[in-house]
Amino acid sequence: MPKVLLVIGDATEVLDTMYPYFRLPEDGFDVVVAAPEKRLYHMVLHEQPPGWDITQETAGYHLPSDIAFRDVKPDEYAGLFLSGGRAPEYLRYDESLLDITRHFVEANKPVASVCHGIEILAAADCIRGRTLTTVAKCALDATQVGAKYVDQAVVTDGNIVSARVWHDNTPFLKEFIRLLKEST
Q1: Beta carbons within 8 Å of 44's beta carbon, 6+ residues apart
Q2: Looking at 46, 62, 103, 116, which residue is catalytic?
Q3: Which ranges constitute the DSSP H helices of the chain?
Q4: How many domains does the chain have?
Q5: At a CB cut-off of 8 Å and minimum separation 6, what does 100 contact?
Q6: Is 116 an annotated catalytic residue?
Q7: Tens-digit pLDDT profile for residues 92-114
Q8: CATH code at 173?
Q9: pTM, to two decimals
């Protein structure tokens, strides 16, 4: 089966991560979980409670990674999935991950980014001149590096498909799977 690299770290959002983790194998793609180290990671749930202006974060499930970023051989993978949550805020400083991200974008392989995942693409300088979406509070991360932000459920620009938040998972994964199937 073609492999898809699923990027996580501590504080990765549960639904941003677990939906593709289970959905991609249903269409014949093997999911390989990559993180800073090969260990167990702690995910979080993000929800904006009624009356709140910001997102509340609570503890979620745990997920082990299969491989550390430094050990990834990007040529072995058909696609890259960048989950959201707070993890990307920290992961975007990992040079191995930035190299991996650049490989996928430059090789024109499908790349999916949801919510804060855009912070990794921005840090890798991979979205300049692209149109995409993300959670509204990350729009600045995109526009400051020369991308165009639009507020819609799913945006595909070349090999990058982006979504705002986990509420967009169904159309988002349909589009990412379409790109994967076309490229494999």
Answers
A1: 11, 12, 13, 14, 57, 58, 59, 60, 85, 86
A2: 116
A3: 14-26, 87-91, 95-106, 118-123, 139-143, 169-183
A4: 1
A5: 5, 34, 69, 72, 74, 80
A6: yes
A7: 999 999 999 999 999 999 999 99
A8: 3.40.50.880
A9: 0.96
